Amino acid sequence: MESAAGPRYLAIADALARDITAGKLKTGDRLPTHRDLAWHLGVTVGTVSRAYAEAERRGLTSGEVGRGTFVNVPVSSEQLHRWHDATPGTIHLHSAPPMPCPEEAEIAEVLQRVAAGPRAMEMMRYQNQRGLLEHREAGALWIGRSGYEVSAEQITISAGAHHGVLIALAAVARPGDHIVSDSLTYPGIRSLARLLGLRLDGLERDAAGPLPEAFEEACRTHDVKAIYLCPNQHNPTSLTMPEGRRRDLAVLARRYGVAVIEDDTFGFLDGSEPLPIAAQVPELGYYVGSLSKTVSPGLRIGYVVAPEKVQGRLGNAVHSTCWMACPLTAEIGAEMIRSGVAARVSAGRKREAEVRSAIARETLSGWDFDCSEGATFLWLRLPEPWRSNEFAGEAEKRGVLVTPSDPFMVGRRESAPAVRVCFGPPKDSDELRRGLCLLAEQLQEGPTCAFNNVV
């Protein structure tokens, strides 16, 4: 550190980053106190405080009042979707792909039919940025399964739901603008906000979702341009927002002129979901549906429902980010919808989700978790003295990957003592049960040792 150029606090933060990357510091390790490290390095306590703040800003560490500063699990897409770097034999319960089901074999038949059809080569050419009319009509049919009736003129085709959220944000906000979300939500909104230069604030919440009073306070304090929400099978808790909370948030959005970006990635669209919030404020609503989680993630096709007056802006955002969603995959998706294959596959995946969520609730019975019937993941609250990152690190040593709470948290908040546990990755119910049993044993045994002190 003494030979490093630049401010000392940055040199300390860089040294922490190198030690974490090299494995000298592990997930869950507790760092020395500000005073102890200052004495050890011969710098002021203020310098160490600035270094720790910089490390937390980079996502390397998190501080907990009264307990200290701890090394985080890295919050990158590679860490959230670790399919290749885990030890062979590891049971993956950390990512949320669709449930396997027998009906998915029909997808191959659609691929063959489209490839052999007369429109195959036409789909290899440039098309309108918003997508072909027949593809948007198919999207309207798919969304209409939920009872939310929309027209093709209200839809823009996106390259998946994540891209759908991106173009919606680009249509309503500019760099420096404020947007808000649930304080516990899909990690992708954080990366999109950074990409677009938006200021993202997390709203205080309860079991029903963001608190209306927190939303109203944010609107009074800032010129909030949009609120991002996942009301159906909320990621990561799996809970569905009740109708009363949806109505309260919709009223406030209209009162303050705030766009509602509603991500319905995990909705099975079978009519069992409450009316979307976006449908209650159609002049401000941006509803994002897709085929990824309920039919096939490889299609990367999403449907963004928005007011007709902003469709030009959405088209420009598509043009600026990927020119157009792939017409060939949009054609495959449309054919799956028209032929009924998408509905049958979605129903099969939902049945498997019901089986697997029942196994999870049974195996983890007696512990504190949120898990809706038919959910594809659960939110496991950890008993004292477990911390989220420490629990995830210990679970990996035992052969199970789960996701700690940090990636889902918006704002500078104390880490929630919880992990997300997904049911989709295991090849069958037996593998899922083995992974869940290992987690139950870990909960029963408690931490194997006291938190590490690193000097």
Give the helix tally.
Answer: 16
Q: Overall 3D geometry?
A: globular
Overall number of domains: 3
- SS content category: alpha/beta
Rg from alpha-carbon coordinates: 23 Å
- Count of beta strands: 17
Report the CATH C-level class of the largest domain.
Alpha Beta
Distance between the termini: 15 Å
* CATH topology type of the largest domain: Aspartate Aminotransferase, domain 2
Range of helix content: 40-55%
CATH hierarchy: architecture of the largest domain:
3-Layer(aba) Sandwich
Q: Which percent band covers the strand fraction?
A: 5-15%
Low-pLDDT ranges: 75-84, 450-455
Q: CATH superfamily membership of the largest domain, which one?
A: Type I PLP-dependent aspartate aminotransferase-like (Major domain)
Q: Order of strands across the widest beta sheet?
A: 4-12-11-10-9-5-6
Specify the biggest β-sheet.
7 strands, mixed
The average pLDDT score comes to 90
In short, what is this structure?
Helix content is 41%, strand content 14%.
Essential attributes:
single chain, 455 residues, alpha/beta, Arc Repressor Mutant, subunit A, Aspartate Aminotransferase, domain 1, Aspartate Aminotransferase, domain 2, 3 domains, seven-stranded mixed β-sheet, four-stranded antiparallel β-sheet, globular
